[in-house]
User: Fold these one by one.
Assistant:
Number 1:
Amino acid sequence: MRRSPDQRDDDLMLREGARRFLEERCPWTPTLPSPGEEDAVRREMAGLGWFAMGLPEEFGGGGADALQALALVEEAGRVLLRRSLAADVLVVPRLMRRGFAGLTALAPGLAAGAVRFALVSGDPAAGGLSVAPGREGVRLRGGGGLALDAGAATHWLVAAGEGSPNGAALLCVEARPVPERRLIDGRRGAVPPLDGLDLPAGAVLATGHDALAAIDEIRDCAAAALVADAYGALAAGLDLTVGYLNQRRQFGQTLGSFQAVQHLMAEAFCDLETLRSLMLWSAASLDGAPAERRRAAASARVVLGREGLAAASRLIQASGGIAMTEEYRVGHVYKRLQVAAGIDGGTEARIRQLATDTLSPKGRPDDEASAA
Amino acid sequence: MNGRVDAFLTDDERAFRAEIRAAIRAMLPPDLARRTREGIHLSREDMARWNRILDARGWAAHHWPASAGGPGWTPIQRFLFEAECAAADAPPLSVFGIYLVGPTLVAFGSQAQQDRYLPAIRSGAEFWCQGYSEPEAGSDLASLRTTARRVEGGWVVTGQKAWTTEGHFADLMICLARTNREAKPQAGLSLFVVDMRAPGVTIAPVVTIDGGHSVNSVFLDEVRVPDDALIGEVDRGWGYAKFLLAHERTNNAQVHRSRREFERLKALAAARPGPDGAVLDDPAVRRRFAVVEAHLAGLEATVLRVLVDQTEGREPGPEASIVKVIGSRLQQAISELAMDVIGEDALTMPDAAGGEVAGWTERHLFRRVVTIYAGSNEIQKTIIARATLGLR
């Protein structure tokens, strides 16, 4: 494990190459790209090796670590790339290490850009997902939640029965046609119709404790990626805003010279860097003890949903009216953050999780108290 | 203990921590730990005692270079040492001698000054105070008016210093004074050692809103100091003062103290009866603790980012500029939460409540200072906006 990003020669090459590619091939514009254009960019990314680099070496991977995968996700966040990279550069390549045969068979396709994953978990409000014996092998029951890019994916990685080893199962399901929903930030998601779906037994990658451990890892990896994406979006938004504030003049002076505006931006910077610290902790903990990994991911998501979103709102406030227009990027940064804050149960669910994980259970004194 | 940011540490660093933890638990007298928990302004005797115990192990000046009597630890090792001291409720080391004066003398003092002053700082035999702020020079420190006039064989210092923490029991003051009226405000300042028992030094206590006495006004009336009281070169004092601030930024975060207080507060909330079970059984209270936990982890991770860079020989990135702002706010958030956990018992005058809640109210009141001192948060934000973000 290493603890600092951007220190190795190949780190810098990767980040700079990614930034150049993304700014040339998919700079942010208010107009949404067509699915055809998105597919073309995707193939070019595969050509650059983005989906292969994180795969284990026995599957033709380049042995890139989580920090490098997250650097790509962060760079994609800077241009507000509509199609998420998280599953294909970070989550699934790492999951391949567990050696699930149903998944590793897809490694060549993933590396070539032909296989694309979406992460699907149950909708807790609808009682989550469960697996029962079925006609062909197994049958899924219950509702899935909103999953990013589930319509563009070729495969859904489905987490069922979370929370208890008895019912837990991780499945890899070939995607079906699904009505897409346009999210407020221009990304697309879908609620995969899983209730009553019959699947061959081979779709089940893992059950019981194995499934639970894999589902936990998927969740924490996805959280790290969500935070990296949000940080990238915010950092680019902050750069844009600082540039604007140093140009735009009112009352005969630049907006950036007003202390009230300076302090707004300093607050945003404090929140931004705290978010990045938590993302780096989250990345470093991916190789460590599950309990710390879980705490890191939850902490990062709590700060994303609170301070991250607040920082995005400060960018709008400091920019003024222009940031209220659909034509200007800063409002889209805010929407990106709002989606990140609200997806997968949202910020409050992470706060509850963190409370459960770090505070003594109801009705039981804290260890420290009994020791004192 | 919950809430550790361990993933940044190497195996060697974890082994180092285990060794330090065991040693500190064995060295720390229980009565010192109790007084550290219950009070906020420790006596000189208590601080000196712990200083002496650490010095016997060579750990008192833990962040000085080995050539000056430090243990030669990396920035991460120092962080772990401080974390373990805080977790054990060890008294804090004197900010001024260990953190401020020692490194300043190591960097800019003469060999004779180092030989004269450093051993007594390490052993806790001499205490220092800082003579920077003045009644008319707070955030705008460079406008200070205390002057040092050249005379035969030395200097004569005259002026008034404000907010002098520990000045009432300090032996020596590191004093910033104007030596050149012609130069720009920052360019005409010099750094001196002033003996607090010299004729012309008068100390007046200032009682703070927590009811305690830790700060003072210090009047310097024609105080004669010898030639060798000047640290470094004349008119260069501002640069020396700033050098130190830049190297001690992570100390201002007070991350270990916050972690320790937060863990103690959790225990307190789990033990105190609330409307339905313990205070900590209330979902609204649990939510607030969880949010502070996330912020505390954010601070710990940010400080470690800075220290990892320093340990691996790189200049820290721009995140170093935020630790004072976020660390001070978090200290206040924890003591604010404590007031709600303790409830009405926190509203009665100190020592009336006693026991497990002792110290929290005074700490909460005094804690307002942390967003003001060491460069107020408004000054910090202006620096971030201008120097880091480039707003103009």
Number 2:
Amino acid sequence: MKGKIHSIDTFSTLDGPGIRTVIFMQGCALRCKYCHNPDTWAVESPDARDYEVKELMEVILKNRPYYEASGGGVTFSGGEPLLQHHFIKEIFKLCRQEKISTAYDSSLYISSQVVLDLIPFTDLVLADIKQINNEKSQLLTGAGNVLNLKNIRILNENKVRIWIRYVILPSWTDAYEDLEKTALFIRDLPQVERVDLLPYHSLGSHKWKLLDLEYQLHEVEPPSSNYLQELAQLFSSLSQRPVYLA
Amino acid sequence: MFTQWQDFEPGRWMCEIDVRDFIQRNYHPYDGDDSFLSGPSARTRSLWDKCQELLRRERSRNGVLEVDADIPITINSHPPGYIDRDLELIVGLQTDSPLKRAINIYGGLRTSVRACRAYGVEPPSSLIDFFEKHRRTHNDGVFTVYTPEMRLARRVGIITGLPDSYGRGRIIADYRRVPLYGINYLIRTKEDDRDSLNKTMSDYSIQLRERISDQIKALQSLKEMAAAYGFDISQPAANTREAIQWLYFAYLGAIKEQNGAAMSLGRVATFLDIYIERDLEKGIINEEAAQELIDQLVIKLRLVRHLRTPEYSELFAGDPNWVTESIGGAGVDGRHLVTKNSYRILHTLQNLGPAPEPNMTILWSKNLPSPFINFCSRLSIKTSSIQYENDDLMRPLYGDDYGIACCVSAMRLGKESQLFGARCNLAKLLLYAINGGIDEMTEDQVGREMPVYEGEYLDFDQVMHRLKIQMDWLAELYVNTMNIIHYMHDRYAPENLQMAMHDSDVHYFMAFGIAGLSVAADSLSAIKYARVKTVRNECGIIRDFVIEGEYPRYGNDDDRVDELVVELVRMFIKYLKKYPAYRNAEHTLSVLTITSNVMYGKHTGTTPDGRKRGEALAPGANPLHGREEKGALAACNSVAKIPYKYARDGISFTFSIVPDSLGKSTAEQVNNLRGLLQGYFTKGGHHMNVNVIHPEVLKEAMEHPEQYPDLTIRVSGYAVHFIKLSREQQEEVIARTFYRRM
């Protein structure tokens, strides 16, 4: 079995605990306006490469001493990794055998059957919440959030460890009522261990241009660090979870 | 038995010089955290304020506060010097005034005069006359016998940075012997050694008798130097303060006698902890007092100065002295060697602020206690002033009482020593292989004469064959050149005092080095896996290359090219070992550049990997900037593949990362940095310099150096005040890969 992989980062400390190998899968169904990896959208891309399961496992195993020393492991990201869930499941099974911790970072805009299918092999899910408000989600990502929220609840019910990721995009995701609703949603999910607030940045905008896509957020300023601190505090007190700023 | 030894656990160390035995029987491993540490005392703060004012003045005077061109420095050349007598608990300066630099003529008359003139002073003509007429110096000795081939190799930069015009250094005397035994005991032992050579007068015994006699004289001089400061060091030290003072005098005598490039301290923290524990137990001192003494020792180590020429600074930028202190590690019995004093000496980076000296070197073992590892990681993140070396790799070869000289060179303290030999340029050597030994920059015939490579495209097997021929040529020339240098150094600028703090029968390493490893390997990889077309100038010399296709690059954990790196190192040490070394020394090899990678690059033509003429080489064993495409661990894994057994003088890797990329919280960052180090060393890595800093901060410091006087970063094997680097070197540091996540 083959997976279509956009790129691999052998040293990530931001995608789950410890030092992790992050595999960025090619292909995504969403079209988030702030996406800094639009080059991972298309299912086929000249930059992506097919990996056999065995081949990817070799890459992963090379860094075992670092996982062991730091409590790290493997994280699938993307793109939307779950579009290639069969491949991921194979890798996760082998990681389980090798006692390497497994995680994926997903928007969870995917059939719940896929999520359920992976649960036995998944140690941690970095679950994105794009927008708690369905209509706003539609505008921001091109899709509603019903599946997203449903899948997070499923993960919670199945006792999977969850870290929530939420992008602060001024005037798109930082309205008080949205933040409050999101935080309260999280508060009721005991499996959510922490929340990462990710400030919007425009570093990916050049990629849009390269792909001949129209970047619509030129006017949006990245949030200031004071403002982020404020939001983090608010979020933390409402959700009763530790909040980290990336 | 000496009364000063009361309450110490007895052992063999009482019958003969055996510092290791003393440590093993008496030290207290400490498994706790850093919560016991004290801040700087008021006295230390005042003293350090005064020093900082002096350092500021030194910076404003182009890096040199004052030069004494009149009195050539010896152990007792200058009267006692003080910063502020009332504030100093540990005393002793190289000259009569802090930061005043003296001339050390024995290393080289020409060099000394040139160095003086660079700072606008002139040694008295009577002094120059005396040395010209009556006393040959090391540098003059070397050039008297250098062959034309050696001079040429040096001039074009295939071998450079050789210690033929400056002190070789890299010798670590066992300074701990002075506090533990006192000078008189050391002299008696040396007299016994000399007297045991009374029978047959061979070259060997005559030379050794002469050397030992000079060592005894040096010990006597050291005693006089201490007496001038009001201390009698003929007997062992009786308490902590004396132990630190005796030890510092021993080191001070060494840096007065020698201006070696690297004058390392050894491994003193745990040794001194034994005295501190005894005094704490007796209630003579408390923790504040112990920290104060260590802070004050470190202040002295930060003020070590030698007079250097501008050419020297191009190789070793930022006025480094490599006062390397090796900390931690584990014993052969499995106990770790971390004590409270391991913490105290590191804590000076917080009490006095970050600084390049002493060169803090953590000997990493999987047996180190977890709180200590966390403490070191936290300090690395905060100060970028620490380097790490793999004790689990070195202990089987050097035991558990070795020290690191300079950056990465291990040796048993007091039992082994090194003949330092800078490095040669492998990237250039590869071009010699292609151009039949003709230097691509000067067009001199330097290497072994062969026809210039004939084909249009480079063929891997042919280039390898040619490279082996040139490598053999270089190895022979390099060993012979080193033999001359060290013969003359022994003869005209011997390290009498340092060798007095060694056993009389010392095992020597001859330390060779290579620069340009990554460029040479990437070039071979391009030739093997892509197609490399040659471009010739009007004389037919190949000066440029066109690469068609892709090739694997070193730094991406790709065996196809990483194996070429290993092969280059293996081949070169094999060729070096073919040629006998002076003093029957054991050949070793380092992959270390200091800052010379910039200068070497400047003198190296365009290489088949696509690197342009004049561009910097990568530092140490690092992959070339920007060629690591698979992230930090892939680069670490590539470097870790170089077997230590082929490069026993050390494999230097400098790792730079922006703080956020280590994790979001401090706890995460600490955890991930220790995970990175542990992983790297488990993979067999030897050394890692860790910088946790934003390149933006460095850019800012380039524009406003006055605001960043203490900004410290690690370059290949040592730490340096960033603002003391030349602009070119600063730019090279910034251009390096700083791992970060987009």
